[in-house]
Amino acid sequence: MTKSELVSKMAKDAGITQKAADLALKAVVGAIHDSLKGSEASIRIADLGTFKLSTRKARSGVNPRTGQKMQIPERVVPSFTAAKALKESVK
Fold it and tell me: How many Å apart are CA 17 and CA 27, to the nearest integer?
């Protein structure tokens, strides 16, 4: 499903315009981005899941183009864990 398909489904299910649904989706996604950038370590949305920041440890790797070994630094990445309700709805 693409973003436009999601917006169309949201508009139909909520009985609102596609423009309003698009603004709502942008607001939710923006809030998640802002919260993870700020002081929030995780965001839990009931029946959907939890967005959180995880730290990947530093590790060594190989440049596939040159074959040269290199050190990959530690970094913080976003991750998502599905809620039980979402997992069960997929079964």
Answer: 15
